[in-house]
Task: structure prediction
Amino acid sequence: MASLEWTLTRAEALDESDVLAAVRERFFVPEGIVYLDGNSLGALPRSVPEALKSVVERDWGVGIVRSWEEWMGLPRSVGDKIAELIGAHEGEVIALDTTTIALSKLIGAALKLRPGRSVVLTAENNFPTDLYAISAVAALFERIEVRHVAPEDIGRSIDDSVAAMCLTHVDFRTGAMLDMAGLTSSAHEAGALAIWDLCHSAGALSLNCGRDRVDMAVGCSYKYLNGGPGAPAFVYVRHELQELLQNPLPGWMGHEAPFEFASSYRPALGIGRLMTSTPPVLGLVALDAALDAFEGVSMQDVREKSIGLSEMFIEAVFERVGMEFELASPRDPAMRGSQVSLSHPRSYEIVQALIARGVIADFRPPEICRFGFAPLYLSYAEVFLAAETVALVMDGREYET
Ligand SMILES: *Cc1c(COP(=O)(O)O)cnc(C)c1O
Result:
């Protein structure tokens, strides 16, 4: 297969047999561009504008305060929709806060569950906001240090001083994917808790938090879940841990009975205890509608198409202008998320030239061109055209002007 050259006809043949082809109709995909930045901000699902109009005009406009009865259940019902996409059970996921805040809460809660242990283990290349949150929360505890290790050293760095291992599943720069099941199991053997950031995984990969015995996880919902700019994050906590968990940032909405207005705090049963504040209703309604784009979609099919798109892109680019780039992503798709990163000293200018030609990718310092593949709304033909555009930009040395 790799010896056969990629052509538009060959890409179009894959679209013909693509079981997800019809799902694109559920999205508003602007004409004239190829959108390879769904890993930064997902495209707009067609169901969202109507849902927002209705919540604003009818529920807010007419229902006003009476609408809270409907709205109050949103964090959990949206959470349950996300649970299906990450292999979690009902009642294990809730939508709230933002990734950084939710992660900070989980780290604090995890440290309280492992008194006597002194280390939070993370990867040195973790996403900056995760690193900031880990350091800041660790600093609130006495005698907790953060151990930063290279991704290949994580497994051997887990010992019985580790309270929590806090990792991002798919690296935002390279797309390299960590072994969630294997590392979680190593953490458990050492008695540590495993917290995973699924920002670049949820909605693009076939995840199974339950089978992998993941303890806690967070993720944002504006990337492959298409919830829109600033959409609420999601939090997952395995059922068995929920009743043990103390929310380090308690608020009235995480109280067992918020409208009792009791002076002392009693945590809600289950995942709801992770709530702090009044839910962001407009964002939740948009996310709720956006998640309907996944209805009837198998995450296995999503993963297979993601691999198909990214393999074709790598092969087509390297057939044409392979000498120009270094592949910054793992070559083996089993070790890669849903993105391909190419490194080049002029990456910033290359991305600008691609955007000028309608291929929306992004640049990450120091020298990475990042291409994200959202299988729900991208076609093979488009991704093939993106690869051809990369070749045009390189052949014409457009990054020099
Ligand atoms: C996108 C992303 C975030 C975003 O954090 P917010 O608090 O939602 O802004 C966090 N972590 C990772 C790994 C991400 O990719």
Remarks:
- The CA atoms of residues 117 and 161 lie 5 Å apart.
- DSSP finds twelve helices and 15 strands in the chain.
